[in-house]
Amino acid sequence: MELSTASKRVVVFDYGFGNVRSAERALARAGAAVEITRDFDKAMNADGLLVPGVGAFASCMHGLKEARGDWIVDRRLAGGRPVMGICVGMQILFARGIEHGVETQGLDEWPGSVEPLQADIVPHMGWNTVEPPAGSELFAGLDADARFYFVHSYAVHDWSMEVANPAMREPLVTWSTHGKPFVAAVENGALWATQFHPEKSGDAGAQLLNNWIGTL
């Protein structure tokens, strides 16, 4: 499947947690000029910043802070510069993560807690469908039965975010279900994120990344 989009500079933020090579290949396939780096200036000035993440919430937060990634994400978003999180890179955007009874503060871009999946089989590993809301740009052009690849044991089950300014657009929240429904993706201005791995999701994931790059 060949996709084309105007070449944009995307940095895959390399803070030690995430399959950066898979992300690099998928973004390049979608038409971006990609660099894997933790260089502060390059991460700040790229058209788009992708924050991957695998493993434990607390470890990812520690690694992100060590690389000044928390400051980079905050400053980019303050300037309306696009950021996308994947898997634990999405989870750390929430207020807190709770693993094995231990609470770790997240980036607090969105309220909510990342908690253990409420399902008979954990981890949730494999292909699943999602339910995007009307008007989603992230899932534009994708069939309703498109499937994406998930690997996770934790998720956000409850979404509650009030937008104080009525002129601002409400975040668009996409859901999936494994046991209990959980947040599978969020589109919120310059900040987008997915719980699943688009870089491992075949043509559907490639189209989704193409959609993101097209907004940069």
Q: Please state how the strands of the largest beta sheet are arranged side by side.
A: 2-1-3-4-13-12-11
Radius of gyration equals 16 Å
Beta strand %:
25-35%
The major β-sheet equals: 7 strands, mixed
Helix content estimate: 10-25%
Helix-strand topology string? EHEHEHHEHEEEEEEEEEH
Mean pLDDT: 93
CATH topology: Rossmann fold
Would you count the extended β strands for me? 13
Compute the separation of the termini in Å: 22 Å
Second rung of CATH, namely the architecture: 3-Layer(aba) Sandwich
Protein name: Imidazole glycerol phosphate synthase subunit HisH
InterPro entries: Class_I_gatase-like, GATASE, Imidazole-glycPsynth_HisH
Domain Glutamine amidotransferase: 11-211
Active site: 87, 197, 199
